[in-house]
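The aim of this short unit is practical: by the end, you should be able to scan a pair of folded records and say something sensible about each. We start with the first protein, listed as its amino acid sequence and then its C-alpha cells.
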Amino acid sequence: MCIPLQLKFAVLIGATACLPLSHAAVAAETYPVKPIRVIVPSSPSSGPDVITRLIGGVFTEAWGQQVVADNRAGSAGNIGAETAARAAPDGYTLFMGSSQQITGPLVFDKLQYSLIRDFTPISLIASTPYALIVNPSVQANSIREFIALAKAKPGGLYYGTGGVGGAPHLATEMLRTMAGLELVHVPYKTIVFALLDTLAGQVQFSFSVLPAALPMVKQGKLRALGVTSMKRSTLAPELESIAETLPGYDIVGWYGLLAPQKTPPAIVHKLAAEVLGALKKPEFQERLRMLGADPIGTTPREFGAFLVEQNEKFRKLVDAAGLRAK
C-alpha cells in the first residue's frame, strides 16, 4: 500500500514532537539520581537555612538522596539569588527564597535576577512575622512608647538590617513613613550582625524574624516590643501587633522553594507534591510552629500568583519611601 507523502511527514513530525515529552517524563520518573543542592541566601541557622534543612530531610526520606544547603549570604540575599538564577535548570539546584528577594530588585535596578522572571515557583512553605527588637537601654516598653521616643529624638535612633532593600529594612521604612519618624539606617552584611550590634548597643533597634531573636529576648539581653503581622503571633502572644498602634501596618516574612526558570514542569510538580505532603502532616506542622513559622503549602501556580501580589505590594512601599537606587 502506498502511503501519501504528506501523511508520512505528519507521522514523522508527530513522533518527533513526542520525544521531548517522553524524555521529560522519564527524567521526572527517575529524578533524583544524585544529591540536590539548595542555595540558601543567608547564613547558617537563619530562618531560610533551618527551613531548607527541614525540607531537605523530607526529600532525603522520600528519595534517598542527600540534600545540601549551600549558604550564600550577603547583600540582603541578592548574592545567593543571582547564583541560583544562573544554575542549570535540571532540578538539582533549587533556591530557598524569601521576601528579601522580592524587595531587592525593586530597590536596585542593576541586580541580575528577578524572582518572577528567572525562577519557577515550587511551593510557598511558611510565613513568619518580624519583631521590633530594641537594646534594653532604650526607654520604651511598647510600640506607642517607641514612636514617642523616636519623635522626641529625631535622627537619634539607629537601626541595623541585613542590607539595603531587605524585608527588615522595608519593615522599618513602613514604620517610619506611617508614624512620621526620622531614623538612621545602618546596613550589615547579614541580619545576624545587626542583631549582635543591637545587643551591644551599637544600634538601638532592628527588625528580626521572631524565632531568631526570642532566645536573647527570653534571656533579657534584648527587648521585643511588637510583631509586624496584622495579628499577634502564637509563638509570643504577649507581644502586641504594631497594627494595634498603627492600623494598616502589615508585613511578614515568608519562605518558599523555587527552581531556576525552565526546570522541567514534571520535576517541579514532583518536588511540590513532596512539600505539600509533608505540610499536611501534623508533626511537620508542629516543627514549623516551634520555629515561629506558620505552615502554608501551595501549588506552583498559587505560589506564582503570591509572588506577583507581593511584588506589587512592595513596589508601592519602595516608591512611597523613595528607596529606589541605581
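Turning to the second protein, read its sequence before its C-alpha cells, just as you did above.
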Amino acid sequence: MLKICFGEKERNCAGLSRRSFLQVGSLGLGGLTLSSLLAARAAGGTQVAARNASVVWLWLNGGPTHIETFDPKMTAPAEFRSVTGEVKTVMPGVTLGGNFTALAKQADKMAFVRSFSVPTSSHNRAAFWVNTGHAHNADRPSLGSIASRVRGPNHSVTGMPTYVLMGRIGFNADAPRIPGPAWLGKAYAPFTPSGPARDNMNLTTKVPRLEDRRTLLQRLDQLRREADASGIMEGIDGLNQQALNLILGNGTQAFDLQQEDPAIVEKYGDGLGASMLTARRLCEAGCGFVAVSLQGWDMHGNVKGGMNKRGPEVDRAVSAFVEDLYQRGLDQNILLVVSGEFGRTPRINKRAGRDHWGRLSTLALSGGGLQVGQVIGESSPKAEFPKSAIVTPQDLMATVFHVLGIAADTHFQDPSGRPTPMLIDGQPIASLV
C-alpha cells in the first residue's frame, strides 16, 4: 500500500509533519526511481561538488574530555593526567585514553588532532561555532546544510537526503538551530530519521507477486503525473519533499540493518554501533553528510565513571567503522570526524570531574583520502592549551570542504541579497591534505 497525503490536517494523517503524511506499506520499491519527480525537488544545488565524497560526523554532545580520550598526558601531575590511564596504539609512542583498546589497533588509519581550540566554553555557542565555523551571533548554515545546498537536498537516483541527522546537537532552547540551514531554507535542513518519520519509511524488500509490483508502478506513475500537472511538489516544504524523494528513490532500504550481513551488525553492536553502521550505509546510498550524536559527555563529576560508560561504546563503534571503511575501500570517499563542542578543564575538580574548557580539545579523523596515521599538533604539558599547530573551527570546516570538493570561495546570498562567503580564513589542516 502506498499512501500520501499533503496539505490537510486530517486526524488520520500523522507523520513527518503536521501537514503531510508519507507511508509505504507492504510493497518494496526494488530498483524503482522516478527521475522526473525527483527533478521537481525544491531548489537544487547551484554548484557541483568536485568529489563524490561523504562525511560522517560523530558528535559527542556535552564536550568530551580531551585528556581521557585522545591526549592522556600520563607524564603530567596526578591531578591533570588521565584518570582512566592510557593504552598504547599501533603507532610507536602514541597512546590513547584507557577505554580505547580496540581503537588503538586502528590508530594507523586515523589522525588525532591535539591542538583544536574553540573561542568559548558555552555549550550552545561552542556547538554552533564548531558546526558552522562561525561565532554564535552570526546567522550561518551548518556544514551539512552547506553540502545540501551545493549538491541538492536529495541524491538524484536513490532519493537519499544529502544531510541526515541522528540525535541532538547542542543544549536547551537554542539547540534546534545549531545544525540547521539558517537562511538557506528548509529544503537544506537535516532529515531526521526518527519517530513517525522512521515508522513511515518501513519497507518490505521482498515483493511476493508480480501483480503487486505492477500495481505499485501504476500508482507511482499516476502520482508522478498528478504531481507534475498540479505543481504540488512546489507546495511541499523542504523536509517533506526530502522524505517523498527518499521513498520514491528506494533510499529507505539503507536504513534497514536487516539488509546487512549479520556478522557486520554484531561487530558494530547496538546503540551507537547501529547508528554508525547505518551512517556507512547511508553514505553508500548517496548521502553526503551524516551527523550522529551521542549524549552524555558533560562530565562535571566522576569523569572516570562517565568514561567507563561512554568510552567502550565509542571504542567499539568507531573501531568497527574505521576497519569497515578501509576493508571496503571506502576510505577515499568517506571521511569520519569525531568531535564535540569543547574539551574539559585539565585539572580534576572537587567532584572528580572536569568542567567546560574551550581553549583546548581534540579531534579524531579517518578516511576521506587524507594522510592518516599521525598526530597533529601538541598540547601544553598539562593539556591546558595548544602548544603547536593550532586548529580552529574554520580550519576544520576548510578540511571538510576539501574532502567534499566544495570550493573554498563558496558563497550564497543572504536574506539581504549580499553574497556571503562560507569560509573566511580557514585553511585545510596542512599535514592531512
